[in-house]
Model the fold of this input.
Amino acid sequence: MLELAPRLLAVLDGGDPVVVATAVDVQGSAPSGPGTSMAVLPGGQVIGTISGGCVEGSLFLTAEEVLATGDAVLERFGSESAEDALWAPALRCGGRVEVLVHRIAPSDHRVVAALRAAAAGDPVALTLSLDAETLGTVVDDACHGRVFTEHAAGRARCIVVGAVEFAVAVTNAAAVLGYAVTVVDPRPVFLTDERFPAARERIVGWPPKVLDELPIDARTAVVLLSHDDRFDADVIDLALRRGAGYVGAMGSRATHDRRLAVLTDLGTPDVDRLRSPIGLDIGATTPAEMAIAIMAEVVAVRSGASGRPLVQGSGPIHATAFPVPVGVAAGDPAETSP
Done:
């Protein structure tokens, strides 16, 4: 639910309630993991998804009932076998999912506060329960009834170095994926609000010095697009030494070889983690296409996926342990408590 925070707040701040359906337990093959939500807004508008279409119709009807009564409902969906008759309609992927459908009113201050924190990119935990009195409260396992706690860490950071046209597209794509984007360039004429409206912050300054003062960790992606020999190698060196989860640099293979020589002289560690030339090979040429190729590689590195076409693989499409979303810390996944 926390991933829908901005759109939910827009309705709640207007004085209207919303109904949110949240997956609280997922077993077997399923399109998404626990914490995934869809919401029904005033007028019947639906945002978000649980299953990609398998159960949304049924959940919409349940949401209308919950909106009218205010009583939370736990729905179960899964296989169509006789012994699992309660799990209907079926998920075509063969998995099972339990979905908590609950109403949020503007007066539910604890929930609204959690949504505001999530929208701002701050760490937050939100507890959901069939018990309306427990909604939004931090509880322990001693509480009665099924309890689901959704955790969201602060938004992961994407640092884009070089205010070139490719950077505009990468910034837009990264923001859509939930990253808090920082664009760095020493030239103020290119680094403007008008060019980078999706950036959380725009910093004019010498890139190595700026990055040295920014928080960088395993959830940070550093995307170097500047093509500037004066500082490119220093930026890469700093990003790798600071443990950025993804470090990629745009440029030809010849440019990459020159950078490697400088990095060798600098004694840069973990050079094998550098993604250069940057991006997956999808035949991208335009800035928009390059942004897709780059951010697809960022996601693949983050999740440990191969990046190859699914048709070339075998077995389940979705991993048993769902990849950690951008807004969820690896040590704090969404979890259920009996």
In short: Helices lie at 5-12, 56-69, 109-119, 165-176, 207-213, 232-241, 253-266, 287-303.
